[in-house]
Every structure is written in structure tokens, then in C-alpha cells.
Specification:
- By secondary structure, the chain is mostly helical.
- Helices cover about 60% and strands about 0% of the residues.
- It has one domain.
- It is elongated, with a radius of gyration of 21 Å.
């Protein structure tokens, strides 16, 4: 079957592909092409993308990211939940917790949730304007 290293490698590839896909979908909230299906897509090309489900999914994703970041920061500060990895691999050497030199590389991710919420609100505003202009 699979070894732990193989599973870990595939997990990392999956996680990277998922985060890249979600980041690219976020671009659809910002650009004009996120409001209509491209004409090159067979059968549905040129149709307007309904704004309500797009905004709902984006808001759920944005608020989920905010909740995950808040949970992580509170757990780091107050140790609300003990790590599930404690006691696993006791023969591993103890590594010191990463400090601010590592955190500064991950700090921009804290802004991802609020930014997704902001672009979702803007997408909803722009879609409402387009809908009003299209009505006769």
C-alpha cells in the first residue's frame, strides 16, 4: 500500500492544487470575466453567471478563513486545544516552536479571509448594477 511519506506527498500536492484553484476562483470575483461564462465554452458560453450563489460561496469561504485564523491565533496564545500530535512519534527530536521569523511569511495569509469578503461584497454590488442596466 502507501507509505506515510507517499501519503504526505500526495496530501501536500492536493493541498497546493486546492489552494491554487481557490485563489484562481477568487480572481473571478475581481475581473469582468467572472460575471459571464466565456464564449468558447460549448452550450453555455456567454451566459451570465448568477451572482447570488457565487457571493454566498465566497462569503462562506471568506468567513471560514477568518474563523480558522482567529482559532489558530487564539489557540497559539491560550492553548485552548492540545495538539493531536502530542505523544505521536515520541522518538522524534523536540523542535522549538517557530518564532516571528517564520510567522512573518504566513502573516499575509491572515488578510486572505477579509479580502475575499471584500471582493465578494464588491462582486455583489457590480452584479446588481449590471442587472439593473440589463432590465428594460
Amino acid at each position: 500500500m502507501f507509505t506515510d511519506d507517499a501519503v504526505t506527498q500526495w496530501y501536500m500536492v492536493f493541498l497546493s492544487a486546492l489552494s491554487m484553484g481557490l485563489a484562481l476562483l477568487t480572481l473571478g470575483l475581481v475581473h469582468r470575466w467572472g460575471q459571464r461564462v466565456p464564449h468558447r465554452v460549448p452550450r453555455i458560453g456567454g451566459r451570465r453567471i448568477p451572482a447570488r450563489p457565487v457571493v454566498h460561496v465566497a462569503l462562506i469561504g471568506g468567513w471560514s478563513l477568518v474563523a480558522i485564523c482567529v482559532y489558530f491565533l487564539l489557540n497559539q496564545r491560550f492553548h485552548l486545544v492540545q495538539s493531536v500530535w502530542v505523544g505521536i512519534g515520541d522518538d522524534e527530536p523536540v523542535h522549538p516552536a517557530p518564532g516571528w521569523e517564520v510567522f512573518r511569511y504566513y502573516a499575509p495569509m491572515l488578510a486572505w479571509g477579509p479580502l475575499v469578503i471584500a471582493v465578494a461584497a464588491d462582486y455583489r454590488r457590480r452584479a446588481a448594477i449590471v442587472r439593473r442596466l440589463e432590465k428594460p
